[in-house]
Structures are given as C-alpha cells and as structure tokens.
Amino acid sequence: MRRKKNGTKIEYIPGDGAGLLLAAIYLLFMNPILTLFGGRVNEETFYHSREYFFYITLGVPFYMFGQAMNPIIRSDGSPKFAMISTLAGAAVNIVLDPLFIFGFHWGMMGAAVATVTGQVLTAALSIWYLCHMKAVKLSRESFGIHVSLTKRYLPLGICSFLSQISLVAAMAAINNMIQKYGAMDEIFGQAQYAQIPMAVVGIVMKFFQIVISIAVGMAAGCIPIVGYNIGAGRKDRARNLFTLLLVSEAAVGAVALIIVEFFPRQLIALFGAANESVYYTEFAVKAFRIYLCMMIFACVNKGTFIYLQSLGKALASTMLSMVREVVFGVGFALLLPVFFGLDGVLYSMPVSDVLTFLMSAAVIAYTYRELKQ
Question: Transmembrane residues, as ranges (predicted)?
Fold first, then answer.
C-alpha cells in the first residue's frame, strides 16, 4: 500500500483478480486436478468429488478476498473485527451444513454450498469494513496496480506461495500413493473397501490441520512483536519470545500426540465412523498413531518457519519448508511404500518431520546466536 505525502490516504489495495483466475483454472481442469489428488478411487468417489469440487470452486474468489483482507483489517487496528468476520463465516457453515445436507437432501452439494455461504459472509463483512477503515480512505486509485509497490511485496508473497505449493505437492503424492498401494492391499483392493484408505487419511489430515492451525496462529501472533522489538534494538526480547514460542509449540504438539495415541477411536467417532466396517476402524487407529506420532516436531518446525519470516529470513524459511514438503514429503511418500506398501505412506510423515527437525535445530541454534549478539 502507498501513502500520500500528507499521510492521510492510502492509494493501493490488493484486488481479487487472483481468486477469479484460480476459480477459472479449477473449473477448466477439474478432472485432471481431481485425478492428481486421488479422486478416482472408484466411480462413486469421483462423482461426489466432482459435485463438491464444482460448487466449492465458485467460492474461491470470496474465500481469497476474505483471507487477503483479514491481515489488512488487523493492521488497521481492528483485530477483533478480523476475528469476528472469520468466525461468523465458520459459524454459518456449521449451522447450514446439517440443514443443507440432511434437511434439503443436497448431499455433497449442500456441504459445499454451506461452506461457500460462510465465505461470502466473511467477504461481505470485509468489504463493509474496508469502507469504514480508520486509517485508510478509498479512492479510484486504490484499485490500481502500482509497479513500484508490486516489486516490493511480490518477493515476500512468492516465498509464502512456494511454501504452500510445496505442501500441495506433498499431499498430491500421498494421495496418489494411497490410491496405488491401497489397490494392491489384500483388503482394500476389494471394491467395497477401496475408499477406506483415502477417507481415513483425509480425516487424519483434518485433525492435523486443526493442530497446525493452532501452531501457525501462535507463531503468526509473534510477528508484530518481533518486528517491534528488533526495530527497537531489543534482540533479547525477541530471543525470549522465540524460546516461549518453541516451548508453546512443543506443548501443543504433545497434547495432540496424547490424543492421537490414546484416544484414536474417540477421534474417529467424531467424524461419523460409528457404522463403518472393522477394517475402517483398524486402519484409522493405525493411521492416527503412525502418521501423527511426531506431532511435537511438526509443530516446532512450523513455528520455526514462521518465526524466521518475522526476522526477515524469508529465504531460509522457504527453503526449510520446501525441503520438508518436497524433498522429504514427496520423496518419502514415493519411496517408503515400495518397501512397506500402504504402511509406507503412513511412515513418510513422521520420518519427514524428524529429518526436518534436525535441520530446524541447526537453524534455531544459529538464530539464537544471532539474537544474542
């Protein structure tokens, strides 16, 4: 964003063209994308995947706009409104899901429409706030693209993009290996059980995302504090905050580890698996206990990646993240199943987290030395 000389007006606000472009790409290449992520386990799965994918894609522009405006609202001094706008969308989604799925009998379409409705609400609240911002006055020039500004923020955005796209690559590799080696399994190679491995790993990843979201939230909350203290020359405070963050991340991971190791059946029940077969339950228990057995390292790694960004070490953060997801995540997801079959896909996650932690530990030690000078 660029401020006028009188310091009272902002002349640039990022648009939502990327969301529209991404939605168009999704719709044009729907089948190849679903195939890439293992959506062709069987015809029934592929049908429901297409149905959900189509409607959820319509909400991509609203979702991206709401997510993009959220940090802008926070930076304007209204973190509560930013939180409320996000929670409002999530609450609408939760309320409408059972209504659309069971009340209107819309099935997968109902789940997608409920999600999109929540995203539209978040985007609408963001638009309202942008028209009532404290420090920003919108003008026609606010919606233009300024090359000089683009050159400044694009490198930071590319670093974040590479980190996220590497995660997508890892997920695509895992899903494809699950589909491939699940078909070779004695049980899951049967048509009536073919969808179990993909469904179970999807549930495990949902729980993982919830835990990692907590880790990301704690680390992201440190960013403005670190920036302020580094600017004030108080590296000691930044170092102490780093210590507190690492301890907190490890604690979150430890709690998650206890849950997945001791209460996997209760977790499965939360996702409506009460009427599933015994094969479903057995594989789900094993998947939770193996796939997420290194949650402590996973949380510490994620916190380290984000903290490095707050110190201006975007390249180091991006490289660690890409090594974790592409080199280790994709590499071991392709390699380990060759020796261990379907179980090898599950082992790929903890192995990647341990090796990444060894690299992160070296970066953490170096960062401590820097902040101690």
Answer: 20-40, 52-69, 81-102, 108-131, 152-174, 207-230, 242-263, 283-301, 322-340, 346-368
pLDDT tens digits for range 203-215? 999 899 999 999 9
- Give yes or no for a contact between 284 and 270, defined as CB atoms under 8 angstroms apart: no
Task: Answer whether residue 141 shows pLDDT above 80.
Answer: no
Q: How far apart are CA 91 and CA 47, in angstroms?
A: 28
Q: What is the per-residue pLDDT for 2?
A: 44
Count other C-beta atoms under 10 Å from residue 157's C-beta: 12
Q: Are 307 and 226 a contacting pair, CB within 8 Å?
A: yes
Report residue 351 as tokens.
């192995």
Under 8 Å between Cβ of 211 and 220:
no
Residue pointed to by tokens 């379907």: 342
Q: Are 346 and 290 contacting, i.e. CB atoms less than 8 angstroms apart? A: yes
Answer for the pair 178, 198: CB distance below 8 angstroms, yes or no: yes
pLDDT band per the 50, 70, 90 thresholds, residue 122: very high
Predicted TM-score of the model (pTM): 0.81
Q: 162: number of CA atoms within 13 Å, CB side?
A: 18
Residue 68 exposed, middle or buried by CB count within 10 Å (0-12, 13-18, 19+): middle
